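Researcher: Sit down with what I've pasted below and flag anything odd:
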Amino acid sequence: AENEAAVKRAEARLPAARQSREEAAARAPALEQAVARVKAEVAAMEKDLSAPRQAEAEAAGCLESRQKSVADAQAALDKAGNTNLMNVNAAKAAIEQFNASIEPVRLQRNAARVTVETATKTLDAAKKAQAEAEAVATAASSRRAKAESILAAQGKELAAAEAGVTSAEQALSKAQEDFA
């Protein structure tokens, strides 16, 4: 009676273990695909960052060059000793015009910086999502291995219970023959 109860309990646990293993196995490919997708997105984002970074570097170089030109112009004015008021006023007007002309470059540099910062934040979020997806995939793989281990143990229990039932049936048959 105990063997039959053990067999029934083992048989009752077997479908749940099989279902658990199948569910874990079914989730694993989707999670692996999600990890691959996130890795591809991260690579694309890093590629997309190269152009804004280059534009920022070019804008900074242009700005430095123009600031040096302004500094050189101011040095020339100082050297001349401000002898001619008209020349000084013309130089001031040129500086103002120069400052007005570099304003688009400054705006472009600032826009490039914002683009780089936004892309960096997006990249960080994608890396975080990738790490989370990898953690989920690892957990699913671990659960799958555990379910397979449980299923194997339950299979052994079932085999042992069946052997016990067979042994009990043989003993019962022998006892019936002995009393007959």
Summary: Helices lie at 2-80, 85-179. The two ends are 23 Å apart (CA to CA).
